Structures are given as structure tokens and as C-alpha cells.
Amino acid sequence: MGSERNYQAKNLSKQILQIRQLSSSRSLAIFSHTLALQSPDANLPKLFSSLKPWFVTGFVDAEGSFTVSVLKSSSVRTGWQVGARFQLTLHLKDLSLLREIQAFFGGVGKIVLSKDNCTFRVDSLKDILKVIIPHFNAYPPVTQKLGDYLLFRDIVIMMSNKEHITLEGLNKIISIKASLNHGLSKELRAVFHNVKPVLRPLAIDQVIPHPDWMAGFVSGDGSFYLTIRKSHELKVGYRAEVGFQITQHSRDQVFMESFIPYFNCGKIKKDTRHSVLYFTVSNFTHLIERIIPFFQEHKILGVKFLDYEDWCKAAEIIKTKAHLTTEGINELRKLQEGMNSKRL
Questions:
Q1: Which residues lie across from 244 on neighbouring strands?
Q2: How far is CA 309 from CA 11, 225, 236, 299, 339, in A?
Q3: Which partner from 22, 199, 255, 343 sits 20 to 30 angstroms from 176, CA to CA?
Q4: CA separation for the pair 140, 3 (Å, rounded)
């Protein structure tokens, strides 16, 4: 990828962490603990996984969450119990990848299984402080999830200083939580109606920090699709096409647009009904010459790698013109029947 070097984060601490501070009187004083990027291995736990740090951050940018709970409790003086959680929820088919992510973080936390999903979560304040925070300080999120991480981190710091067990500290935490993720519940808004939310920090001038980040991000939010449609123009009666797509919330539009020069191909499509953006590559030459070589070098992981492998087989069939035969179309149908949501 010749254009890849143009997007390497040589000055990541200056570029990715330009946080727009828009508060008035309070001036976001809670952010006094500014994000100081450390050397890549500083304060991180010993790794028991082959996963690479930027891959993990990219995957978390796609699938992870930083949450804070505030629940009624008669066992604490303020009447409210504050808890912090780092979490990843995947389909049960990706349980092995989730276990490897847990191993990457030194085995902290636990994995909870449900009918179709598996969740890796870290609730221990000690583990969050000693393991989760050091990783994301050194390898911070790149999407607007950076704002959630910063808000989450400052609440964790307050909790480590025991501020959450005082009414003053609780009110500060509520004001931060009001700007975290989806904000406050109806119950909390009713009780803490006088609390003013802090202004959410924004990630601006983001760059893709490393190809491993992109591999992790696509392992979460990417898709490799194969379509077979009837066609009266072709003798075989069907048209087969492959494509590559990344889905993201529209709040990251500027960042998503940077994918075009990064891969030197593709375009952005909007779904205004759901505030969703799609980075899409459908040009077959670009898929063969740019997308496939990139992910051959920077591996996708999890069950999506199996979809990628089948997708590459489909691309090869189309490349050799075998899709213009009945045998080729039938082979493509077999691949399609086992890909993505149809994979057992």
C-alpha cells in the first residue's frame, strides 16, 4: 500500500488527541488527567496472546464499549452505587477470538455466555486501572469512541480517588455520564435534573494509526459480500459480483472519508434513515489489486476470516471468467450459502 505511509501516525499524540474543549465556566476540569501517550509497551501486562495492540484497539473501535453504571443502593452513603465496565460482545461463533482478547489483557475479567452471544467484560476497578487504561493510553481509540474512552477514564480516576462515595463526586460523575454513550436513563435524569452535562470531547484530525488497526476494525465492522442476480444480458443468465464494505455511524464521516485515500479506492454511501455510513469498494480491479493484497498482509481474525477466505475464492472464480459458466455460478452459490450470516 503506497498510500499507507501517508496515514501512519508519526505524531499520533498531536493528531489523534486534539480534543475540542468547548466547556464554559467549568472548562472540562475533569480532563486535567490529559491523555499522555506512552511508549508502546509501557505499563502493559505481559501478553499471552498473538494479537497485536493496534489490532485490539481497532476491534474495540468497532465492537467495544466503555460504560459506567449508577444504580440505587442502600449499602452506600450516597444511596447510589457507581460501577465501571469495559466490554466486548460478539456472536457465539467468535468465542475463540474473545478468549484470545481476554488473554491479550492478561486474563483479567470474565466471559459470559448467552444463547447466541458471548461477552468479555472487565468490572474490577483494579484491573481497569492496571490493564485496560494503560493499553488505551498507549493505543487510543481513533473513532469518536475516543470521547467515550476519555469520559470513562476520568470517571475511573475519580473512583480510584474515592470521589464517587461523596455527593459532590457523585454529581460530577453524573455530569460526565450524561455525555457518555447514550447519556442518562430516565430515572437518573429525573433524580439529577439539575446536573449539567459536560461537553463531550471530540476526536478530530484522526488518522489511521497502523494497518493492524484497520485489520482489527474490519474484523469487527467490515463485510465481504457476494451477490448473484438474474441477468438477461449474460448467456449464463446470472450476474455475479463481489464487494467490500465498512459500516460506521455518521458521526465519523470525516474519518470514514479518509479510507478512500488510504486504500486509494472506494466511495462513501449514506443511509440517512439510520445515521449510518458505508465505505464501499465494488470496482473489481480495485478489489483484486488493493483490498485483497492489504488483507493478505494484515490478517482479519475471527469467523470473519472464514468469510474473507470464501470471498477470495469467489473473486478468483470471477477473475478467471468461470462465473460465466453454469458450473462457475453453482460454485459461487455454494460459497454464498455458507458465508456471513449463513455460516454455521
A1: 224, 281
A2: 35, 11, 25, 11, 10
A3: 255
A4: 22
Query: Could you give the CA distance from residue 108 to residue 138 in angstroms, rounded to a whole number?
Result: 18
Q: How many Cβ atoms sit within 10 Å of the Cβ of residue 52? A: 21
Q: What residues have CB less than 8 Å from 239, skipping those under 6 apart? A: 228, 229, 230, 231, 233
Please indicate, yes or no, whether residues 134 and 44 belong to a single structural domain of this protein: yes
Any idea which residue has 475533569 for its cell? 30
Cell of 135: 493499553
Residue written as grid cell 455460478: 329
Counted residue by residue, the chain has a size of 344
Residue 189 in domain = yes
The CATH number of residue 311's host domain is 3.10.28.10
Per-residue model confidence as pLDDT tens digits over 116-156: 999 999 999 999 999 999 999 999 999 999 999 999 999 99
Domain end residue (candidates: 204, 237, 252)? 204
Instruction: State which residues form the domain around 232.
Output: 211-342
Q: How far apart are CA 294 and CA 312, in angstroms?
A: 12
Which 3 state secondary structure label does DSSP give 179? coil
Judgement on whether residues 195 and 335 belong to the same structural domain of the protein:
no
